[in-house]
Amino acid sequence: MSKYSSAYSSEKLIPRIIDDIARTHPDVLYAEIPNDAHSCQAGFRKITYKDLANAINGLALWIERTLGRGLNFETLVYLGPHDLRYILMLLAAVKAGYKMLFPSSQFAIQGILALIEKAAGKALLTPVCIPPTGAAIIEASQLSHYQIPELSDLLDVEHSTYAFEKSFEQARAEPFVVLHTSGSTGFPKPITWTHDWALSFGTEISLDAPEGYETMLNALPHFRALSMYPRFHAGHIFTCLLYPVFGGTVAIYPPSERPPGAAVALETLQATQTDLVFFGPLHVTELYNDSSLLDKISQHVKRISWAGGDITDTAGDAVNSKVLLMVGLGATEMGNWPTIRSKTWDPADWHYAQFHPAMNMVMEHREASIHEAVIKRRTEGHEQPIFKIYPHSDAYATGDMFVPHPKKPDLWRYYGRADDMLVFLSGEKFHPLGVENFLSHHEKIENALVMGTGKRSSILLIKLADGTSVDSIWPIIEEMNEQCPLVARVTRDRILVARPEKPFVVTPKGTVQRRATVELYSKELDRYM
């Protein structure tokens, strides 16, 4: 059990922890949400655990009245605005005997429908105001459709208690929620967390740091955190449910009807006190591109935790000079990897992470200085979250590649995915992420993808800014080539310019879906040896 939530509850199942805190410590703060879905000017509403439990009860009662009691953890699908109802839906569904699936609204409809089919979705739930993606699914599928209560009706009305009386041993292997992969290697795949998985996550974020080190919760106990992750994203559930319940943190919500950019984050930070912001790489890049925005944000928060993709050294150095950057690592199936920092940590090492020894992470050499992170099952102490999903494995190769710090042992920098590695006809290998990032962060280049597996040398697919020609960026490509081995260097005749009718396929995190984009240009690529 987490040492932070144990001050309020000895329970292990999240619905029971929330009910227990609501009963014994009703005024403990869970979150703050804007009173206006479009602005922070009307102030924030404090949501206590009593409020949270009451709203969950109201929604669980609505689910049972509308759909009946769940018999075998049937899957319900929800699409809605970026508000508190994602968390309420998750927990109300568990209480009512169902499990939730939260598809990304940024996927193509075909991808969402394939995901719903794989997860055996029973019904689609939306707010009264149906989002465009929800309307498209209603039209394209046979799912029954129901409209859930407004958030104000769930929070402002006192609801009857909806009991959840299972013990942890009874429920530990039962589903908690269904999320999905990012879709970077094809259609998204469902990933089911169990209650046991959730408790393992809570244990990992609450680990004590070795002597001379600190974890995020050691450094900022009971921190107030603004999360800018999409509400359907695992990062949202990490930061707005699991961290509050197991870590005693307070979730700060931005206005739900505004695009979740850095400008909205600033408006939120100006309206309520916040210790930490959870950002994606696009948000950090926004700050780099707008020094005035960066200056203003630095006046209201001192730490930014970023995750979900890489950022350039130039962008990170600029932001880190004003706000301390903390790299976050992990994945939907593995959770948020527990990291530690020396109490004498050099802020200049913002791009590096040191993993908690209890994670049992081993870096296995793959190519040149590149290593793959492999999690080994522990024989003592807690069992890591990944082995709740793969219980018969003793090791899990994450597919995440890292390079070591040139001078400091145990510090590692994320380098890319194993499945991004190019293998040329000669058998030589090259990982393209570094040079792709180099190109993509140039103002004349909107996106870049280096390909070459099964070819004699690299091929560059590039999306240029309006009014830009290949000739005008050739000096940039020459500079990129200086960073590459001979086999990976790009010549003028091996450059493909992306066409408007064939845009790069991107994930909800904004990163390029490599396989889908390569398939989109397969005919063009076949012309090259």
TrEMBL record:
Gene3D superfamilies from the UniProt entry: N-terminal domain of ligase-like (3.40.50.12780)
Origin: domain of life: Eukaryota
Residues covered by the AMP-dependent synthetase/ligase domain: 39-347
UniProt cross-references to InterPro entries, sorted A to Z: Adenylate-forming_Reductase, AMP-binding_CS, AMP-dep_synth/lig_dom, ANL_N_sf
Keywords in alphabetical order: Phosphopantetheine, Phosphoprotein
Name by which UniProt lists this protein: Acetyl-CoA synthetase-like protein
Organism encoding this protein: Aaosphaeria arxii CBS 175.79
Lineage of origin: Eukaryota, Fungi, Dikarya, Ascomycota, Pezizomycotina
